[in-house]
Amino acid sequence: MDPIRPRTPSPAHELLAEPQPDRVQPQPTADRGGSPPAGSPLDGLPARRTMSRTRLPSPPAPLPAFSAGSFRDLLRQFDPSLLDTSLFDSMSAFGAPHTEAASGEGDEVQSGLRAADDPQATVQVAVTAARPPRAKPAPRRRAAHTSDASPAGQVDLCTLGYSQQQQEKIKLKARSTVAQHHEALIGHGFTRAQIVALSQHPAALGTVAVKYQVMIAALPEATHEDIVGVGKQWSGARALEALLTVSGELRGPPLQLDTGQLLKIAKRGGVTAVEAVHAWRNALTGAPLNLTPDQVVAIASNIGGKQALETVQLLLPVLCEQHGLTPDQVVAIASNGGGKQALETVQRLLPVLCKDHGLTPAQVVAIANHDGGKQALETVQRLLPVLCKDHGLTPAQVVAIASNGGGKQALETVEQLLPVLCKDHGLTPDQVVAIANHDGGKPALETVQRLLPVLCQELGLTPDQVVAIASNIGGKQALETVQRLLPVLCEQHGLTPDQVVAIASNDGGKQALETVQRLLPVLCEQHGLTPDQVVAIASNGGGKQALETVQRLLPVLC
Q1: What b/e string do you get for 326-350 counting C-beta neighbours within 10 Å, with b at 16 or more?
Q2: Where is this region: Disordered (predicted)?
Q3: Measured in Å, how far apart are the chain's first and last C-alpha atoms?
C-alpha cells in the first residue's frame, strides 16, 4: 500500500482543526483493549489491543458540514481501497439521532478522521475499518458446500442410457457437460462409450458437439475414434481447434500432411506441437535442416514435441558437423518423449562417453533413442565403471541394458540386485543382463527376486524357465500370471508346465495366458482344434490377438 502523503489543507482539515467541545477523549482501559458497542457490525470480533474510544453523544443540532457526502469527499483523500464509504449512504447527517449500529460505524469513521494528520494511525484504522466481520464467512462456506452437492454432482445419466460403470468413469464435474451435449454427440454418431472417453477432457465435449461438421469437412478421413483420441487429451479441445485453423495449410506444400499425420501430431504432441509444425514448416524442410515430412511428424508426435522441434533446429547442424552424427540419428533421438533433453545431453556427454568410457557414437545414440534418454545417458556415465569393474559386466552389456525404456532404473537395479540374484538364487550375470535388457527391466528383476523361490519350489519350474519368462517385455506381469494360472491351466485344461512356460515366454505373455484360459475350451470344442494347436498359436509374440483372430475367422475361412 502506498504511504499516505500530507496534502494541501482542505476544508475538512480546517474543520478538524477547530475546537470540538463535544469530543470525548479516548480513555485507556485496564487491559488496554476496547469493545465495540452492542449491535455493531464488529460485534463478535476479539478485542483489539488499542485505546478505547467512547461513542460520541448525539449533538443537540445537526451539523450540515458532516453530511454523508462530505465524509465521502474527505475519505477520498485516503487510499480508496482501504475504506468502504457505502456505509454512510444511509446516514442523513452525523448529528442526527443514530441507531446503535450506526453509532458503532461512526466510531470507526471518527477514528479515521482523528488519524487524518497521523499517517501511521490512519493506515492502522483504515485497515481495521476495511476488515470484514468474521461472522460472515460461515454462510459462504455453507453455500460452497451446497454447490458441491449440486447440480453437476447429482446429474443422473441413467436416463440418457449410460450404464452405472460408464457413469463411474465420468468425473462429477463433467456430468452436467455430458448431459448438456449428449443429444448432439449421439446425433453426430458417437457412442456412449466414446462420449465417456471424451469426458476425460470436458472442454472437448462442447467443442466436438458444436464443431463436428466443420471437423469432418477439414479432416474428412477422421473417424469418431480419431476425434475422441485427440479430444480426450489434456489439451484436446485446443488441439482440435488448432487443426481446424491450420490443417488446410499443412495439407499443402512444403509438408503436404495427410489426415492421419495431422491427427497423430495433435494426439501425441498436443496443441503446441500442431502450432509449432505450422509456424516452422518452412524452416524445418528448408536448408540446412532439409527434414522430410515424415521426420517432422516423428519429432512432433511426442510429449514435448514443440520443444524437440525447436532443439532440432538449434542442434542438428552442431551434432552433425562437430560430433559426426547423421541427420537420421539426430531425428531418431528427438523422436521420443523428452527429445529436447536427450539431444542436449548427447551434445554434452557424447565426447565424454566416447573418450573416457570407450563407447562409439552409435552406442550413445542407441542409449539416447528412447523415452528417458537423458537419464539413461547420465546413468551410464555414472555406473559403467562400477558395473564393469565391480560386477564383471562388459561395456556392451551395460549399453544393452541402458538402451531400453526405463534404462536408468534398470541399470540401478542391476547394480543393486546382481550380487543377490547370483549368490542367493544361482543366476549368472548373463541371465541377469537378459532379464534387465527389456522395457520394464527393473520390475522384472525385482519380481524374479521375489517369485523365483515360489515358482521353483511350489510349482516345479527351473531357474532357467523363470529367466526365460522374465526375459521379455512385460516379464513382471508374465511371472505373476504364471504363478496364478499354472495350476489352473494344468489341472483344468490338461496343459503341462512346459506348455505354460512356452506361452508365457514371449512379449505379452500375461495376455496370452489369460486368453488361453478363456478360449482353449471354445477353440477345441466348437472349432475342432487340439490343445497342442492352441498352445502353438499362443506361443508367439501377440499370442492373444492371434487366438482371438482364429476364433473369429476360422469358421469364415473354412
Answers
A1: ebebbbbbbbbbbbbbbbebbbebb
A2: 1-67, 130-152
A3: 86
Question: Which of 419, 468, 477 is CA-nearest to residue 447?
Answer: 477
List the grid coordinates of 423. 549368490
- Please, is 61 exposed, middle or buried when counting C-beta atoms within 10 Å of its C-beta (0-12, 13-18, 19+)? exposed
Cell (9 digits) for 386? 562400477
Query: How is the chain split into domains, by residue range?
Result: 11-131, 162-301, 475-557
Cα angle, residue 264 at apex, residues 259 and 267 outer, rounded to 5°:
120
